[in-house]
Each structure stands twice: as structure tokens, then as C-alpha cells.
């Protein structure tokens, strides 16, 4: 991966970062940062959502995201990378008979402000002042949000989340930052897989390992150990092992039993059938939705 292709690389002066991000020179950075409205989504499983409550902050984060996209990423990284989707992550593991899928538990709220700062300071080689500004713009500090909903505090306590300053869940920049602030961890995971003759891909909080040979528990345990050493845990319920005689689920994709192609997931088939049989939806809307599903099918079949 080449970080020097990013225009943020090596910036040392505060005025330069203001110009690049189009931040008014007279405006205090503290007035722009930390403008979020956290809440707990109760639909299905409870989730922490931290939407931005400022058009200005949203625009600045979008600019940072665009600049970070200029980095040349390794082929096995799919975390918010331009031109790559969850389907590409599935395609990456074709021709593999065995797959193991891991899911990092509560990933975003456990990525500390410190890790984000270290990325800007030590990887993008920004000065301390510039790294501080970029970190403030890319993280949320729940300690400084007035009238924080008690449901949010209860959620943090119940899920043993100790990082009050972290990457926000619900921001456009979070996917790509989740990878960049954990580059060393993911590189170590990739090296373990490579030494063992396996492929590995990173899709935000999903780590997928695949091989044409049986993936033994020693490799899996090494990778889990790396994740834990970096302050995270895996969701044990979502640790899945798939064998040569099984369909394999990879970030919403289904890989065929022989590992040679993606197949349309049953839930998508059911949605298409339900849509076709729906007599209450307008014809134009139905056609548009069916076209969307056709595009999805073409992507899967490519």
C-alpha cells in the first residue's frame, strides 16, 4: 500500500490543512467538530448510531474521505475503497474450497481516538497539530455531547464499550478509517494467512480467510489472538467455517459448493418473486426496482 499518493500525506502546517479541506481560516475547529446526535436503533438488534448534526462537518468528512481514496490499497482490502463492493469481496474468494469468516464485535465504537491520531501522525506523517485537527474531524467524543441519551450510556455499559472517543457509527468516513487506523493489525493478519497458504480479505469488520486446503484451527486462533491483542473481540456466533461440500457465505455473497462462482442468495430470489407478485405497487416503481435487482444479478454473475 502506498500512502504517499494521498494529498494529506506530509502536511505540517495548520493553514495548509484548512485550505485543503476548505475550512474558513477564522473559524475555530472546535466549533465544527463533535456535532453528532447519537441514539440507539431498536429495530431488530440494538445498534449505536451516531449521525452527524452539521452540514459543514459532513462536507469536511466527505472531503477527507475523497482524499483518503487516493491511497493505493492492496487488492484484498474492501473497506470503503472506491470501485469495490461487498460483491468484489465475494469474488476475491472464488476458486477456494474452504472458507472461514470472522466478525469483529462492535468495531467502530471500539476504535479509539488514539488509533486515529497515530495513523495521521505516524503513517501519513502529519505534524502533531495537523494530526490533532484531522482526528477531531474524524472522531466523536461522547463525553462532550450535551444531553446524551441514557439509552446510549446503557448500551455502552451493556456492551462493555470503554472508548467514549471513537470512530462514529453512521459517518461516511468510518469504513475507510476503520481500516487505516488498524493497518498494522490487518497487515499482521494478512501475513499469517499468506504464510499458511491462505487468502484473506478485509471488509470493514469482516475478516474472511479462504484456501483450497483445510484451514486448521491454529491459523484461526493466531488471527483471533492478533485481533484481541489490538483491543477487539470477535463475535463467536458469527465465526463460520465452510467446507468443500457446502455453500459459503461471504459478506452477503453466496459462493457455490465447488467454490467457482457466486450464486444469487435465496433472500434476493424471494424479494424478486415478492416484488413481481405485488399488485399494489406502481408499475414504474416496480420496473425501477426490478432493474436494480438485474444490475445486482449482473454483478454477481460477472
Quickly describe the structure.
42% of the residues lie in helices and 13% in strands.
The helix-and-strand class reads alpha+beta
Rg estimate, integer Å: 21 Å
Largest beta sheet: what is the strand line-up?
6-7-3-8
Which strand-content bin applies to the residues? 5-15%
Low-confidence stretches: none
Total strand segments: 11
For the largest beta-sheet, the strand count, sense and barrel status come to: 4 strands, antiparallel
Order of helices and strands: HHEEHHEHHEHEHHEEHEEEEHH
Number of helices: 12
* Helical content band: 40-55%
Shape: globular
**Span between termini:** 26 Å
What's the pLDDT, averaged over the residues?
92
What's the arrangement of secondary structure elements?
Blueprint: H1 14-21, H2 29-32, E1 39-41, E2 47-49, H3 55-68, H4 86-92, E3 98-103, H5 113-123, H6 128-138, E4 140-141, H7 150-158, E5 165-166, H8 174-180, H9 183-195, E6 199-203, E7 206-211, H10 217-229, E8 240-242, E9 248-250, E10 253-255, E11 262-263, H11 266-277, H12 283-301
Antiparallel strand pairs: 1-2, 3-7, 3-8, 4-5, 6-7, 9-10, 10-11
Helix pairs in contact: 5-6, 9-10, 11-12
Amino acid at each position: 500500500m502506498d500512502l504517499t499518493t494521498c494529498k494529506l500525506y506530509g502536511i505540517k502546517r495548520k493553514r495548509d490543512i484548512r485550505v485543503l479541506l476548505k475550512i474558513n481560516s477564522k473559524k475555530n475547529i472546535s466549533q465544527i467538530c463533535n456535532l453528532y446526535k447519537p441514539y440507539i436503533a431498536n429495530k431488530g438488534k440494538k445498534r449505536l448510531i451516531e449521525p452527524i448534526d452539521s452540514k459543514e462537518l459532513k462536507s469536511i468528512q466527505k472531503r477527507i474521505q475523497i482524499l483518503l481514496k487516493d491511497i493505493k490499497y492492496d487488492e484484498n482490502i474492501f473497506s470503503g475503497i472506491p470501485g469495490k463492493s461487498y460483491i468484489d469481496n465475494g469474488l476475491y474468494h472464488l476458486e477456494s474450497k474452504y472458507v472461514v469468516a470472522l466478525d469483529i464485535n462492535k468495531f467502530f465504537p471500539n476504535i479509539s481516538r488514539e488509533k486515529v491520531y497515530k495513523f495521521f501522525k505516524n503513517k501519513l506523517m502529519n505534524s502533531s497539530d495537523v494530526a490533532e485537527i484531522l482526528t477531531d474531524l474524524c472522531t466523536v467524543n461522547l463525553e462532550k455531547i450535551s444531553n446524551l441519551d441514557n439509552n446510549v450510556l446503557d448500551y455502552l455499559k451493556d456492551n462493555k464499550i470503554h472508548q467514549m472517543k471513537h470512530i462514529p457509527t453512521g459517518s461516511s468516513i468510518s469504513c475507510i478509517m476503520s481500516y487505516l487506523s488498524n493497518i498494522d493489525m490487518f497487515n499482521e493478519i494478512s501475513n499469517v494467512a499468506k504464510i499458511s497458504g491462505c487468502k484473506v480479505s478485509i471488509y470493514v469488520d469482516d475478516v474472511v480467510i479462504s484456501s483450497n486446503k483445510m484451514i486448521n484451527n491454529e491459523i484461526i486462533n493466531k488471527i483471533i489472538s492478533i485481533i484481541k491483542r489490538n483491543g477487539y473481540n470477535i463475535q463467536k456466533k458469527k465465526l463460520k467455517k465452510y467446507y468443500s461440500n457446502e455453500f459459503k457465505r461471504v459478506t452477503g455473497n453466496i459462493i457455490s459448493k465447488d467454490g467457482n462462482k457466486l450464486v444469487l442468495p435465496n433472500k434476493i430470489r424471494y424479494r424478486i418473486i415478492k416484488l413481481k407478485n405485488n399488485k399494489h405497487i406502481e408499475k414504474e416503481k416496480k420496473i425501477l426496482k426490478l432493474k436494480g435487482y438485474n444490475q445486482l444479478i449482473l454483478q454477481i454473475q460477472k
